[in-house]
Hints:
The structure is a homodimer.
Chain A: H1 10-39, E1 66-72, H2 76-86, E2 92-99, H3 108-113, E3 121-125, E4 145-149, E5 153-155, H4 157-169, E6 174-176, E7 179-184, E8 190-193, E9 210-211, E10 215-219, H5 221-226, H6 231-240, H7 244-256, E11 261-264, E12 269-271, H8 289-303, E13 314-318
Parallel strand pairs in A: 1-2, 1-4, 2-3, 6-11, 11-13
Antiparallel strand pairs in A: 4-10, 5-12, 6-10, 7-8, 7-9
Helix pairs in contact in A: 6-8
Amino acid sequence: MRCLHFCKLPGRVMGIRLLRFTSVVIIVLLLVAGALTALLPNIKDDKMPNLRREPKAQSQPTLDSFTLIMQTYNRTDLLLKLLNHYQAIPHLHKVIVVWNNIGEKVPEEMWNSLGPHPVPVVFKVQAVNRMRNRLQNFPELETKAVLMMDDDTLVSAHDLAFAFSVWQQFPEHIVGFVPRKHISTPSGVYSYGSFELQNPGFGNGDQYSMVLIGAAFFHSGYLEDFQRQPEAVYALIDETQNCDDIAMNFLVARHTGKPSGVFVKPVDIRNLEKDTNSGYSGMWHRAEHLLQRSYCVNKLVNIYDGMPLKYSNIMISQFGFPNYANHKNKM
Amino acid sequence: MRCLHFCKLPGRVMGIRLLRFTSVVIIVLLLVAGALTALLPNIKDDKMPNLRREPKAQSQPTLDSFTLIMQTYNRTDLLLKLLNHYQAIPHLHKVIVVWNNIGEKVPEEMWNSLGPHPVPVVFKVQAVNRMRNRLQNFPELETKAVLMMDDDTLVSAHDLAFAFSVWQQFPEHIVGFVPRKHISTPSGVYSYGSFELQNPGFGNGDQYSMVLIGAAFFHSGYLEDFQRQPEAVYALIDETQNCDDIAMNFLVARHTGKPSGVFVKPVDIRNLEKDTNSGYSGMWHRAEHLLQRSYCVNKLVNIYDGMPLKYSNIMISQFGFPNYANHKNKM
């Protein structure tokens, strides 16, 4: 070991050596300490004891969970029955109840007295009973996905879990359980309907060009888009107290340039209308309901200066459910 | 009209005026001719008389049509029966028959004598009887889509037309009629099978992770990719005379990072094996067939250093076909 001028003086030699030795020891100790610190396991947040009990779904609200938006009018008994079911659906983040019972108190006290509940439920009191109240861009909405359900429709948890997974693969579409179509007639006037209408004539089988939002998943961004539509659209929906779903399909089709919806064939979907004590039967029982919807299709074509709806014949089911070989064939 | 110096001389005036007048007339005539030419309808190629009779599908071979590739060994009677059916499928561009009957003449003479045929059929004579002969990047292939069929499988035209339309919406996937899956065991060893195997455990219902290429549409680009795989893959397929389809699913899954296949539930798919006069029964009757395929899965995981296959539970059917309300529900 080469030693320079400061080593030459014997009187100082011992002191310098000690100093050097001590420095080396300190440096080595620091290095060892640093190495140990780097090797220690990281204490992540989720391993720390959760002192406040929070529902698990709250931690990742964006793409892994959805918000249920359910508008209700004059069927509080059905609403509460359905909430008992829907509040427990996997991947549900929150429920927003759009309260169209003007002047009537929300059942918040009763709801809280029957807690705890799996997810938060927000009751949004409305000023006017409007069909399009459910299409507001609610500030409480935190998830990318919305599940919109009519307050008389029961869809099984299995169906919903599967449809949500399908929506995650088709996030720009309305993924739901109720397909409908329009057809054009030689006069250029459109008609609205379902399987009873003739096929649009694209090959064999039937086609659909809309998926109704009363039992469907769609991207919350479309609620934002809905706020920016021509006034005539709102006027039409308010005039008919109908057709908000047709308007949404127009919006989505215009946005994507593709068929607005993806139809998932439900295994178990039920209409509980007959079970209500309120005596109130839905809008679709009105004599003019379907005619009104044809009227809406034509008005919307007018407003948007074109027919944006596109046909699809894709029907999606869940592989191996409910029976594990629902795909067996003669092969 | 102002007239400058050249107007001053009376002797030249008449001549100049005439010249100017003539120029104006000529210019006007040219403008009119130009306007007329612009207004004439465009004569497009497809409106010109087609002097040579060409099948309609030849005009746009890329995305609107597909090529059928059918490998055949020792079942010429089935091949010819199936060709009579498949040659007439809508959107078919061409048929490539991969002739694995080594040393045997292709039935080209007989085929031609029974013409005309809807599409060209090319018989590709092979040097060696190899399972992977059908996975060559044939120069005759002009379309983006390939339909690969086993020479004992009959799928209805309706199913094929629908599945082709589905492939057009999922061009990077293998879109077909026969789903299979792998499962992993606690030991890390994989097993291959179908509905009889336990579910992979992702929610309820079953899952599939492969779609067999013996009855499926896929992008012709994958045949190109297949030529660039590790040697060990070819050796495995040659050793087993099996598993080329499993290898293709590995290839596609690695390429997309998604489930390799999309399963379309067939309405009418039949195995004609028992109808053959050749007495030859397919490879899948060998006792070790399924075990071999499990073996292949594990070997491929080894070769590719990982398991790229992903699960899907999407099952696609044709809306409103065969019966126009196959989507009706209790609602």
